[in-house]
Write a structure and sequence with these properties.
globular; 3 helices; Non-ribosomal Peptide Synthetase Peptidyl Carrier Protein, Chain A
Length: about 90
């Protein structure tokens, strides 16, 4: 997956990835939706996490399920991880 260039592109890529895994339309992957509403069990969430790590070249932190109840919770984690990766890869310490 190519590097998302802006926040909207990141959200779209996130929604498309999650939708593909869950077998739903990307339009159903909205920040206010809970994982229960999308019928995503713990196995699906693990798969989503691994695929997002791969797709965006990031490492999502381990999060307790009760701390990631909504799609928006997960999206925030992805946005932070992508920003941190971009900041790290853009720095030239040495």
């Amino acid at each position: 997956m190519p590097e998302p260039r802006d926040p909207e592109e990141l959200r779209r890529a996130f929604a498309e990835t999650v939708a593909e895994i869950l077998g739903i339309e990307p339009s159903e992957v909205r920040p206010e939706r809970t994982w229960d509403e999308l019928h995503a069990d713990s196995l699906a969430l693990t798969e989503i996490s691994l695929i997002l790590d791969d797709a965006f070249g990031i490492r999502l932190p381990d999060v307790a399920p009760e701390d990631m109840k909504t799609v928006g919770d997960a999206l925030v984690l992805v946005e932070k991880a992508v920003a941190e990766r971009s900041a790290t890869s853009g720095s030239t310490s040495g």
